[in-house]
Amino acid sequence: MVEKIYDTIKAILFTDFPKDIAGVPYVYDRRIENWFFGDRTLINSPLGVILKNTTSNIKDIGFGLREIEYSIKITFYSSNDDQETSERVVQESARIAHSILKNHRSMWICDLCPFCGLFPLSPIHYIDNGVITNVGIATAVLPSNSTSYKIQINGSANGLDYPALIKLSPGISGAITVAEILSCGLGITQTTYSDSYSQLNFTLSGGSGHTGYSTTLINNYVLNVLGQINAYWSETHTTGSPPYYDWAGVAYQAVQEFISDWKAGVQTAGNLNNSKWTNNLNSVINNNVDLMRYLQDIQVGDLTPSDDGKEQMFLHTAEFVMKAKEIVAVDTFGPNNVNVNAV
């Protein structure tokens, strides 16, 4: 239940931690040499990370709905030339990790993609043929009498194609320093934008690596999900569709519907023409793998900046606890679901 949660936390920390010239996460001049899952006897190391002591509290919150609350300890340890160096290293490590994870109120937990074998951090992977992942503001001012400014970046009309929307607004200094990605878009290829108010630089995703697959296998499911969203939207709004979509949420629901159909034997001819995809998808079903899960209400607390290490010579540790909730649907009920041939 928690292995992929560990993988996701590790991937987020590895991605966002400061890195040395070789691209390895480090604190001061100490590299993170080890990443461990599960508690263990610590070994001498300039810096290491342990994900451990997970507890899962499971309760019913409604008919067919269960809530799982996870509590995961994240520990940094360091053994250096003297106690003060070890102390400083673990305290700075905990500070950086806490500053990274505290910004996450929700988190996607993904398994290996059955089409390309990669480990995605977002469901957008399945429909990604170019999205904006970061916005850099070179210069920006607001139009007169405005408190914010929205910019639309159009896609390239390659497969699934929807515009990205960027909202610019003042930071705490009053200067225009906040760039909020309202929609990351689909099929985005341009890396810069300029008009009379702003000059922006974009960081783009590299695409999923299987754009053709995502725009053929998943395309109909994405369109179906968009139709559902538009129908709900029109019930309470005067417009037929929302101004932008949560593409991670759309992709999540599309993949859930796709896998549900596959499990029920609804398999399109395009899927069956590739034996590798077929075998991988059958393996997903046979092994009860959830390709995607969604953690909510993430809280990072119980921070212990250092254990002081009085009796541990040069070995010091720092740790904190990350809590999160997952709501799962139970769609199969007993008692008649037990195979009579079960041994």
- Given helix and strand content, the structural type is alpha+beta
Poorly predicted tracts of residues: none
The oligomeric state of the chains shown is single chain
**C-alpha-based Rg, rounded:** 23 Å
Biggest sheet overview: 6 strands, mixed
Total number of strands: 14
Helix percent reads 25-40%
Could you say how many structural domains there are in total?
Answer: 3
CATH topology of the largest domain: STM4215-like
Percent of sequence in beta strands: 25-35%
Mean pLDDT: 85
The CATH architecture designation of the largest domain is 2-Layer Sandwich
Q: Describe it for me?
A:
With 343 residues, this protein is α+β, with helices and mostly antiparallel strands. The chain folds into three domains: 3-111 and 293-329, STM4215-like (2-Layer Sandwich), CATH 3.30.2000; 129-206, no CATH class; 210-289, no CATH class. Helices cover 26% and strands 32% of the residues. The model has no long low-confidence stretch (mean pLDDT 85).
Write the layout of secondary structure elements.
Elements: H1 3-16, E1 26-27, E2 30-31, E3 34-37, E4 48-62, E5 65-79, H2 83-101, E6 107-110, E7 132-140, E8 149-153, E9 164-170, E10 176-183, E11 192-194, E12 198-204, H3 211-216, H4 219-236, H5 247-263, H6 269-272, H7 275-286, E13 292-304, E14 315-329
Parallel strand pairs: 3-4
Antiparallel strand pairs: 1-2, 4-5, 5-14, 6-13, 7-12, 8-9, 9-10, 11-12, 13-14
